[in-house]
Amino acid sequence: MRTIAVVNQKGGVGKTTSVVNIGAGLTRLGYSVLLIDLDPQSHLTLSLSVEPDETRATMFDVLSDSAKLHQAIVDVEGMHLVPASLDLAQVDAVFSATSNWEFLLADALVDLPPVDFLLFDCPPNLGLLTVMSLCAAREVFIPLQPEFLALHGLGKLAETVGAVKQRLNPPLEITGIIATRYQKRKKLNREVIVKIREYFGDILFTTKIRDNIAVAEAPSFGQDIFRYSPHSNGALDYINLCREIAAQSGRNDMSAP
Length: 257
Ligand SMILES: Nc1ncnc2c1ncn2[C@@H]1O[C@H](COP(=O)(O)OP(=O)(O)OP(=O)(O)O)[C@@H](O)[C@H]1O
Ligand SMILES: [Mg+2]
Description:
This protein is of the alpha/beta class and 257 residues long. Helices cover 40% and strands 14% of the residues. It has a seven-stranded mixed β-sheet with strand order 3-4-2-5-1-6-7, with helices on both faces. Strand 6, helix 8 and strand 7 form a beta-alpha-beta unit.
């Protein structure tokens, strides 16, 4: 199983969009996938048309030990999802005084059904939920929009990942940088890609996710890009990205179906 936290404290860079469509793409390639929504905004949950309601167990219930992970799983679009709710906004206040809060998520995963890929959609900050995801994952993917200031704040993110790796979770590695909303005709986009490659080397995925209206529209229909617009550039880019991700599994001797 590969456990991947999709992280960037910068907002609106394509974390949630990538989690949905990588999950859906890997599912189409024959892998089993569980998505965990760790953002109080619940965009991942809402993008898949799952309404957080009073009766449904959510990630907050799992973290507060009032539900087991398997009780909170919803099946949607051929994938499994643990939904979020606005309750997650209380996590910092509720758990920061709990000893070993860093491992609340990792501990909850003991109840996990066997899957090939587990993806965490993180909120746009480096608060408790993001740190918990870094303690539960072995890999980090960072989506970046190749615009002015794309690399701003990455030092802080790399520092956080490094600190978690050193103190709490030694196997953790940044294994993928995803360029999102790429516009080839924009000189600035091309220049920033060169800078990202200088900074990160070959962990920048070769596939760039182009700016594509269908990618932005799909969530409002509760669909992933493959169902909403299977012939779009967005579908093509995300399936190519998924092939690269699956190929990493071979390279790192990680499980393949
Ligand atoms: N390839 C794309 N083409 C066009 N629009 C895109 C693309 N990727 C993402 N978007 C749009 O950009 C916006 C931000 O994307 P998304 O919500 O995935 O980012 P995020 O990093 O999860 O944001 P947040 O930090 O708020 O959680 C959304 O409106 C989304 O539809
Ligand atoms: Mg998001």
